[in-house]
């Protein structure tokens, strides 16, 4: 879509610094609500990730921005003008999919040039822009190769160049790295973020991988059942989860069922927890709650003396060496499994099946209402 085409759409009041506005977006498939009343401002030039488990609505939301699906209700504004009803090829966005969909009968350069040729762009400009896009994606030396002779990572770079050559205002990415191995995926995360920073255009990235979202994003949208659970920076999402679903979906967590027994005290079947006072706000005495403690916040050591506050004793059920960290699984006397991840340099030499103590700092505890439906089933 050209800027002139956008201007022809009925204009709304554009928010300063906002590229895309989603206004009460709803999408249903039969009786199932894929997206339910979502409001979201996507800032110009930011890297925003839509994160959540399968079926949470993140891909449907992306497809509605791209124009492959239309909302049943609500509006989508780009630069203050509605793009609802416009076909995908009339929107100033491009999409990189899970399957790169490269044309096997074309060379790398021909694949990248395809969209420009469809728009009847002058030949000299096509050559210049294709060269720029291939250099940006570090694929200029592969211009004459066939896609079938490329690795998965190289094919992804070609798909990225093909999208960027059109100079979109917004680039949409639908889990484009899901087929890559871990090492290559981590390398591509760095490259993708560097490209986004260099170009300064808006990236909207869909993923179920929390590490991808946290490592690349300026902000993260955590979704569940078609609704936004939390929007914030990676640090905000990680350190201050809005509810137990977000806490459980981001990182490795331990959920401890408790009762509020005082203004700053939680009591469980075999432990007493004293969180930071701020974590206790809104939770009254006698209320059942769940205390959430991250695996990296729990230290595992030998049992010495009586069990103190913010600790619980158990049996060491499993030890896994993960390189820089050691992972422990501890089974408490009541059968609760706790997960701990400690720096290898700080880990004690402990024997499997020995009695151990799990302890944590009260400041690391998050407290949420004891509603099982809000605890993430997928971690």
From TrEMBL:
The gene is potA. Its EC number is 7.6.2.11. The keyword Protease does not apply. It comes from Mycobacterium aquaticum. Belongs to the ABC transporter superfamily. Spermidine/putrescine importer (TC 3.A.1.11.1) family. The lineage of its organism: Bacteria, Bacillati, Actinomycetota, Actinomycetes, Mycobacteriales. One of its GO terms (molecular function) is ABC-type putrescine transporter activity. Keywords: ATP-binding, Cell membrane, Membrane, Nucleotide-binding, Translocase, Transport. This is Spermidine/putrescine import ATP-binding protein PotA. It is an enzyme of class 7 (translocase). InterPro entries: AAA+_ATPase, ABC_SmlMolc_Importer, ABC_transporter-like_ATP-bd, ABC_transporter-like_CS, Mo/tungstate-bd_C_term_dom, P-loop_NTPase, PotA-like, PotA_ATP-bd. Pfam families: ABC_tran, TOBE_2.
């Amino acid at each position: 879509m050209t800027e002139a085409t956008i201007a022809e759409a009925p204009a709304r009041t554009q928010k300063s610094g906002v590229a895309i506005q989603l206004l009460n977006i709803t999408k249903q498939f039969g009786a199932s609500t894929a997206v339910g009343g979502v409001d979201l401002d996507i800032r110009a030039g930011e890297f925003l990730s839509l994160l959540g488990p399968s079926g949470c609505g993140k891909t449907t939301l992306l497809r509605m921005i791209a124009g492959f699906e239309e909302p049943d209700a609500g509006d989508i504004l780009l630069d203050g003008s509605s793009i609802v009803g416009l076909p995908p090829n009339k929107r100033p966005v491009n999409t990189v999919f899970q399957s790169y969909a490269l044309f096997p009968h074309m060379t790398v350069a021909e694949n990248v040039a395809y969209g420009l040729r469809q728009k009847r762009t002058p030949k000299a400009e096509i050559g210049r822009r294709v060269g720029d896009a291939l250099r940006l994606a570090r694929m200029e030396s592969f211009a004459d190769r066939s896609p079938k002779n490329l690795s998965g990572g190289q094919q992804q770079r070609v798909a990225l160049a093909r999208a960027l050559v059109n100079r979109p205002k917004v680039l949409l990415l639908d889990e484009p790295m899901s087929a890559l191995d871990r090492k290559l995926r981590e390398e591509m995360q760095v490259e993708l973020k560097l490209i986004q920073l260099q170009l300064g255009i808006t990236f909207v990235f869909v993923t179920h991988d929390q590490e991808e979202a946290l490592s690349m994003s300026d902000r993260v949208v955590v979704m569940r059942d078609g609704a936004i659970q939390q929007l914030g920076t990676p640090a905000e999402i990680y350190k201050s989860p809005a509810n137990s679903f977000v806490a459980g979906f981001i990182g490795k967590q331990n959920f401890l069922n408790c009762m509020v027994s005082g203004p700053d005290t939680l009591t469980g079947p075999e432990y007493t927890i004293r969180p930071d006072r701020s974590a206790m706000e809104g939770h009254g005495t006698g209320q059942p709650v769940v205390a959430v403690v991250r695996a990296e916040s729990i230290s595992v050591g030998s049992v010495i003396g009586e069990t103190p506050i913010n600790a619980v004793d158990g049996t060491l059920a499993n030890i896994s060496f993960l390189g820089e960290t050691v992972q422990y699984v501890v089974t408490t006397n009541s059968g609760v499994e706790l997960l701990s991840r400690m720096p290898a340099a700080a880990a004690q030499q402990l024997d499997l099946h020995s009695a151990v103590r799990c302890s944590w700092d009260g400041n690391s505890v998050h407290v949420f209402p004891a509603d099982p439906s809000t605890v993430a089933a997928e971690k």
